[in-house]
Amino acid sequence: MKITKNAAIKPKKYTYIVVSGGVIRAKVNTKTMADRIALQQPGTVTTHRVDRLFSRSGKVLNQTCFRAACIEAVNIWIRTNAAANRDVLMS
Hints:
42% of the residues lie in helices and 22% in strands. The chain is an alpha+beta fold. The protein is elongated, with a radius of gyration of 17 Å.
């Protein structure tokens, strides 16, 4: 089997979940948009990257994966915020 130049591997697509204040602020499909939204949020902000959860029209592709990703993103924010508070107290 001959491999041609056109048989390049497609880049994987992701959804970025922006969490601030323990609340999901945005779910977007581009890193640039996630960074832009994160800059506008006060306090500790985390951006969580997961496999693509939305179609181009905004429809959720897999409801179970969507819920799990949202819970995981908030849990990561809780751990990050606790670590930041601990660092402030120790300094």
